[in-house]
Structure formats: C-alpha cells, structure tokens
Amino acid sequence: MRISTDGPSSGTSGAVLARRSVVAGAVGNFIEWYEFGVYAYFATTIAATFFTPQGGGAAEALVRTYASFALAFFFRPVGALLLGRVGDRYGRRPALVAAVLTMTAATTAIGLLPPYATVGAVAPWLLTALRIVQGLSAGGEFGGAVALMTESAPPGKRGAYGAWQSLTVAFGLLGGAAAATLVTSALTESQVAVWGWRLPFLAALPMGLGALWLRLRLTESPAFVRAARADRVRVRVPPGASGKSTAGQAVPGPAAAGESVSARTVCAVVVGCGRLMAWSAAGYTFLVVLPTYLQQTVGRSAQQALLATVVANLGFAAAIVPAGALSDRLGRRPVMATGAVLAALSALPLLHVVQDPGAPVWLTCGAVALAGALVGLSAGPGPAMLAEMFPTQARHTGLGVAYALANAVFSGCAGLLITELIRRTGNPDVPAYYVVVTCAVGALALAISRDDGHRRALRD
C-alpha cells in the first residue's frame, strides 16, 4: 500500500473528518444513481431516439434499451476491480476522484449524443459505449465510498454511517424523478422527445464539478493509513540481512499476505452477492423499473408513473438510516432478513393494488411507499455488512466487486428480464414473481450468515 493523505488534515477533529467523509462519499453516489434513474425514467424516449430505426417496433426498441442498461451493469464488476485495486493500494481518495470524473463526463456526453435519425446505427453504439464507461466508474464508486464511510465511522455507528451511502441512492433516484417530472411538466411531449430529455443528463456536469471539489479536499481514512503503515513494516528487510541470507525464508510481505487474502476475498464476494440478492432485485424492481412498467403494462401516464416512483423512493429513503442504526444494536442479519421476507410475502398484493385503476390514490401511494420501505430495511445495514466482511487491504475491491456483481445479475437484468417476460407471456404479475423468488433466496443466504460483525472492529 502507498499512503495518499493529501488534503486538509491534521488539525481537523475526528468528528469533522467523519462527517466530511460521509458527505464526499455520498455525493458521487448521488450522481451515479441520479443518472441511472434518469435513464430508466426516460427509457421509452431513449428507445425511440437511439434504438428505433425506420419501421422498428417500440417494444423491441425498449428491450434493446434495457439491454444497454444491463450491459453497463455487467461492466461494474470490472470497474470495481480496477478502481478497487487503486483504492486498496493508493488510497480511497484518488479512486473516488477518478470515479466521479468519468461518471460526470460520460453522463454529460449522453446528453449531447446525436439520435438514430441523424447518424443511423452509430447512435446505439455510441450510447452503449458511454453506458460502459458509466458502468466502470459506478463499479469503483460504491466500494470506495462505503470503505471511506465505514472506516471513518465512530465505534458502534458503522451501520448508521454506511446507511448514508444507500440513502443517496434514494436521493439520486428522487433527483432523477424530479428532473424528469420537471421536464415532462414544463415541455410538450414532442419537445421532450426531441431535446427535453437531454436536459437532466446535462445537469450532471455542474453536480459532478461540485462532487469533485469535495473529494479533492478529502483525507484518507484512519484504517487505511494504519494498514498502509503496517504493510510497510511487514516488507522491511531486517538490518544487515542480504538477499542471499533471506532467500528461501518465509518473509512476510504483500505477495504472501495477498495470496491468502485473495482466497478469502473470493469466498466473501460470493457470500456477499447472496446476501445482497433481495436488496438488488427488489430495489430495482420497485424503484427503477416501476415507471416504465406502469406506462407500458398498466397504461398509466408518464406523470402518474413518476409520481408513484417518487412515493416509492420516499418510503425507501425514510427506512434506510433508521434500519442502519437499528442494525448497530441488533445486528445486520435480522434487519436485512426481515426486509427480504416481508418483500417476498407482500410483492404480489402490492403489485395488484398498483395495477387496479379503481384503487384510491392513498392506497396506491401507501402500497408503493411500503414497497420502498421494505427495500430500505436491506439497504440500510447492507453497506456496513459488506465492509465488515473484508480486511482493509482488500475492502475497497472486495465489497465493490460483491455489490457490483449482485447488481449486475439481479438489478441490471431486472428491466430486461421483466419486460421480455411480460412481452412473451402477457402476464402483468411478472415483476412480483421476480421479487418473490430473489427475496426468498436472499433471505435464506442471510439466515445462514454470521451475525456478529456489528460488535467487532473492522479488520486491518
């Protein structure tokens, strides 16, 4: 490890540094999920702009749009691995700076892309390439931010501090929904289709510059600095020892330590994916896929679909920090497993309420808010649970890859899978079945997991 501790520092109190870490870590995550939310909310418009050649079908174009959406998710593990290695070797700060720079540049570029009508088949390829760049940066974002937040948290508050990373998911999706609502309300349908949809993407530029300024002022977490110093001690050759005299001896060092850590890290990544299954699948189904589902399958207007999404995300946001704080007292497993079980049991009844055109507005809003809150029970303790599974020298990489893989499989494919299954079967209950299956398996993975991480110090 190499220590990167530039930025304001030594005279700053631990409490101030902890709060600064939360803010700087969360702001990049906000931009990431703002963009992913905007992309999902304008999925039908993007489909028509980039994936519909002359005579192409709207349903087929939407499937292709979600395929591009899913592809970006499958590059997130690659980004988690690449930027995670930077974060574990050189520090959380340089990795987080790189993540916010690439995400901001790619998101802004999407708002400037020429449509299919102008450049033909090049348009979807350009969009897909930018989605890949976003996937790479998003993959490195989560691991670095969660590592920074949890490593900077006061004793006994990792769940509450890590929950702020999940809270910015809700804020990002709400920000995306607010931007989409503002655009669709202020402009005509034709204006939105031609140029209005680009405005929320272009808004990422000033937000990204603000996030960059905050991250450049960060200092490294105490846990990373301790681990880096310990690593330097381990590799130091004893005074007077020559290369010949030490040859064949088992000298502790990064390579030897890294081999055992790698094996443990791979196992922890697999286990972490299982524990995150309910959060990933239910979260994307209820919070991101919902607006397109309501428009395409249920027949609601764009405004109604966005309103339902806003209410769902408000329920999600309201549950996250309390759930994280509760997990600091009860443990991560009972809180997360409760959310997974309740989501599995209530998915079908809640979806039927949303589908009913005669349901009172208060009942529909209550149903989507409850769905969001159940996801929040998993999302609140989730970051701290992941951080506690990995040692400091592999934490950024390990938790980032676990989160990215779970999201690639269970979130990135959600829109594509649900849309295609509904198109083939005509069954509007497909989203509920998807949530039931994934949450049931996720609850089982949580039930058999160790549950004393909240009582132990993070491993250096």
Counting helices, strands and paired strands, the structural category is mainly alpha
Contiguous runs where pLDDT drops below 50 for at least 5 residues: 3-11, 233-260
How many H/I helices? Answer: 21
Query: Strand percentage, roughly?
Result: under 5%
Number of strands: 0
Shape: globular
**Main β sheet profile:** none
Helical coverage, percent range: over 70%
- Write down the overall mean pLDDT: 82
| Helix/strand order | HHHHHHHHHHHHHHHHHHHHH
How would you characterize this protein structure?
This protein has helices at residues 14-41, 43-50, 58-74, 76-90, 92-110, 116-119, 122-152, 158-186, 189-196, 198-202, 204-216, 222-235, 243-246, 254-298, 302-330, 332-355, 361-379, 382-387, 392-410, 414-425, 430-447. It is mainly alpha-helical.
Précis, in short:
The protein is mostly helical. Helix content is 80%, strand content 0%.
Write the layout of secondary structure elements.
Elements: H1 14-41, H2 43-50, H3 58-74, H4 76-90, H5 92-110, H6 116-119, H7 122-152, H8 158-186, H9 189-196, H10 198-202, H11 204-216, H12 222-235, H13 243-246, H14 254-298, H15 302-330, H16 332-355, H17 361-379, H18 382-387, H19 392-410, H20 414-425, H21 430-447
Helix pairs in contact: 1-5, 1-7, 1-8, 1-11, 1-14, 2-3, 3-7, 3-19, 3-20, 4-5, 4-7, 4-19, 5-7, 5-11, 7-8, 7-19, 8-15, 14-15, 14-16, 14-17, 14-19, 14-20, 14-21, 15-16, 15-17, 16-17, 16-21
